[in-house]
Amino acid sequence: MFTNQRYLSSSVDDLPVKTQLFLWHLIDSMPASVAKASEQFFDLSVAMMDGKPVQRIEHYQKSPAFEQVVFIEADGSIFECKLTACDTGSISLLARK
Questions:
Q1: Is the pTM of this model over 0.85?
Q2: What pLDDT tens digit does each residue of the chain (97 aa) get?
Q3: Is there a contact between 61 and 41 (Cβ–Cβ < 8 Å)?
Q4: Which residues pair with 53 in a beta bridge?
Q5: Are 41 and 63 in contact (CB under 8 A)?
Q6: What percentage of the chain's residues is helix, strand, coil (to nearest 5)?
Q7: Phi then psi dihedrals of residue 57, to 5 deg
Q8: Are 45 and 80 in contact (CB under 8 A)?
Q9: Which phi and psi (to 5°) does residue 10 adopt?
């Protein structure tokens, strides 16, 4: 899963490239013990750490169940949105829900 060509919908254009690449990295770095589902979900929100805003990313899939939450420093704007990555078999697409 997710080893084919990767694309972004135009709804994701406003996300920093660093964030886009990090989302793909989260999929790539899932534990080998977890079977990757063809749909991966991301909930982006704002969190505060040491009095500074950071990007909170909740990455999950529904079946088999998997969830992880990570925090990254913000390069400018912090986004609050929901995204989906889908592997169709021939391509992988990251889009805003």
A1: yes
A2: 999 999 999 999 999 999 999 999 999 999 999 999 999 999 999 999 999 999 999 999 999 999 999 999 977 789 999 999 999 999 999 999 8
A3: yes
A4: 48
A5: no
A6: 15, 45, 35
A7: -125, 115
A8: yes
A9: -65, -20
